[in-house]
UniProtKB/TrEMBL annotation:
Name of the protein this chain belongs to: MmgE/PrpD family protein
Domain of life from the UniProt record: Bacteria
Residue intervals of the MmgE/PrpD C-terminal domain: 278-453
Coiled-coil ranges (or none): none
PANTHER family to which the protein is assigned, alphabetical: 2-METHYLCITRATE DEHYDRATASE, 2-METHYLCITRATE DEHYDRATASE-RELATED
InterPro entries, alphabetized: MmgE/PrpD_sf, MmgE/PrpD_sf_1, MmgE/PrpD_sf_2, MmgE_PrpD, MmgE_PrpD_C, MmgE_PrpD_N
GO molecular function: lyase activity
Taxonomic placement: Bacteria, Pseudomonadati, Pseudomonadota, Betaproteobacteria, Burkholderiales
Protein family: Belongs to the PrpD family.
Record domain MmgE/PrpD N-terminal: where: 13-249
Gene3D superfamilies in the cross-refs: 2-methylcitrate dehydratase PrpD
Length: 475
């Protein structure tokens, strides 16, 4: 009987890459950037402590069982997979984490919880952790990029859906699987990967859990494969594989060759955008455009009556996420609603000249001037966008006297073509971390992250957990 499985599936190629990559093969600049991406994520996780979603999640996982795996800022208190999910919640909870532009995916927020949990448990080196993190990043960003934004359009959140595959390969690497087992792990995780965008309808918390679920699924799939459990070999390109099952009518728009193009020679780490604002990346260009107009023209709550209408020009591929349905977007109820609302973000930035975590507090959400202006914000499709390479945006203010002023952001701040520097990431880390810890503690965390490849993985885990002494148990 002739096999219907391609001679070299995408799973096979990712397996070969994931097992053969050596840290010495990765350019030093890529390694350095990777450590700074981890630092960015850790700062956000530390800032998340004390938010309702963090406390609720920790209480739930604590009820399900205990363990000695590290939870960032909370000690060693959960079982391995629960710790991975919890760390994903902490990193992704504020929607301030990095984004791979072309893949439209937050990859660090699943990759780091996955490799941190396993590398700590199995007493790996920090270099092992860093290598596995880069593997997860390369796989998940590439798999997402091949869909050309189609996952979002079909109602799926790539961070949870696709992140599981990168985590499966990274976990398999740390567990020393062979190539066939790594391929099976990807097939297994195909039945576990998930992530619905339905949270957009009412600001539900489910998105916050997606990356942690991806991390735990990757660990589970790799462990099953290690013990002989088999999965379908054509996890991506198969008749019911990832692309066919999750893209539907948009399957023909995908380019699966992008998944492995330049694999091992070009680095998607370099394409990861850092968020300068705590909101969906799709909103950043219009937010910055509104901030620029505020600074140039002095718009404020006192000049509200001078503004007749505001038009935000956005890429067509972002409309369903941050512009529609329009009326609820104009009056966000929760912070998560606000982070995915072009009208609210543009109105806030135009009147206040900023958009920070403080603009997500209940008092800010109820600001009558902001809500009055948000009701006047409409959107149009940006005809000149380069999306998804860039998350473009333009804001046009129509004044009551008939004049118009506008500002355009053709390249969103923080993306690969307008990058945030490593020094800027360090500054962002301290601003976030110091919301909940002292400067000296933040400095210890930064040092542990930026020198992670020089120490055992458990040393980083201890520092992130806030432990003074290791309570690890050998496996």
């Amino acid at each position: 009987m002739t096999s219907l499985i391609p001679a070299a599936t995408l799973s096979d190629q990712f397996a070969r890459f994931g097992l053969s990559l050596a840290l010495r093969d990765i350019p030093h600049a890529v390694q350095t950037r990777a450590k700074h991406l981890i630092l960015d994520a850790v700062g956000i996780a530390v800032a998340s402590r004390g938010y309702a979603y963090a406390d609720v999640s920790l209480a739930a996982f604590s009820e399900l069982g205990s363990g000695s795996s590290p939870v960032i800022g909370y000690g060693r208190r959960l079982a391995l997979r629960d710790a991975a999910v919890m760390n994903g919640v902490l990193i992704h909870g504020l929607d301030f984490d990095d984004t791979h532009s072309r893949g439209v995916i937050h990859s660090t927020t699943s990759a780091l919880p996955c490799v941190l949990a396993l590398a700590d448990r199995d007493e790996k080196s920090g270099a092992d952790l860093l290598s596995a993190y880069i593997v997860a990043m390369e796989v998940s960003t590439r798999v997402a990029s091949a869909a050309k934004g189609g996952f979002h359009q079909a109602g799926f959140h790539p961070t949870g859906l696709v992140g599981a595959f990168g985590c499966a390969v990274a976990a398999a690497r740390l567990l020393h699987l062979d190539e066939l087992q790594v391929a099976h792990a990807q097939g297994i995780v195909l039945s576990m990967a998930a992530g619905s965008l339905e949270f957009l309808e009412d600001g539900a918390w489910t998105k916050r859990a997606h990356p942690g679920f991806a991390a735990a699924s990757g660990i589970t799939a790799a462990t099953l494969a290690r013990h002989g459990f088999t999965g379908p070999r054509s996890a991506y390109e198969g008749r019911f594989g990832l692309y066919a099952s999750h893209l539907g009518k948009r399957l023909d728009e995908a380019d699966q060759q992008l998944a492995t193009e330049g694999l091992g020679s070009t680095w998607q780490i370099d394409e990861v955008a850092i968020k300068p604002l705590p909101a969906c990346h799709f909103t950043h260009a219009v937010a910055d455009a509104a901030i620029a107009l505020h600074r140039e023209h002095g718009f404020s709550a006192d000049t509200l009556d001078s503004i007749k209408r505001v038009v935000a020009k956005v890429p067509r591929g972002t409309v369903e996420v941050v512009c529609e349905p329009l009326e609820p977007k104009r009056r966000p109820v929760t912070s998560y609603d606000a982070q995915f609302s072009v009208p609210y973000i543009v109105a806030t930035a135009l009147l206040k000249g900023r958009f920070t975590l403080d603009e997500l507090e209940p008092a800010a959400l109820a600001d009558p001037a902001v809500l009055a202006l948000a009701a006047r914000v409409d959107y149009e499709i940006d005809p000149d966008t380069t999306f998804p390479r860039h998350y473009t945006g333009e804001v046009v203010v129509e004044r009551s006297d008939g004049t118009r002023v506008a500002h355009r952001e053709a390249i969103n701040r923080g993306c690969a073509d307008r990058p945030v520097s490593n020094d800027d990431i360090v500054t962002k880390f301290y601003a976030n971390a110091q919301r909940t810890v002292s400067r000296s503690t933040a400095e210890q965390i930064a040092q542990a992250v930026l020198q992670l490849d020089e120490r055992p993985a458990h040393a980083l885990a201890d520092t992130l957990a806030g432990s003074t002494e290791s309570s690890r148990t050998s496996s």
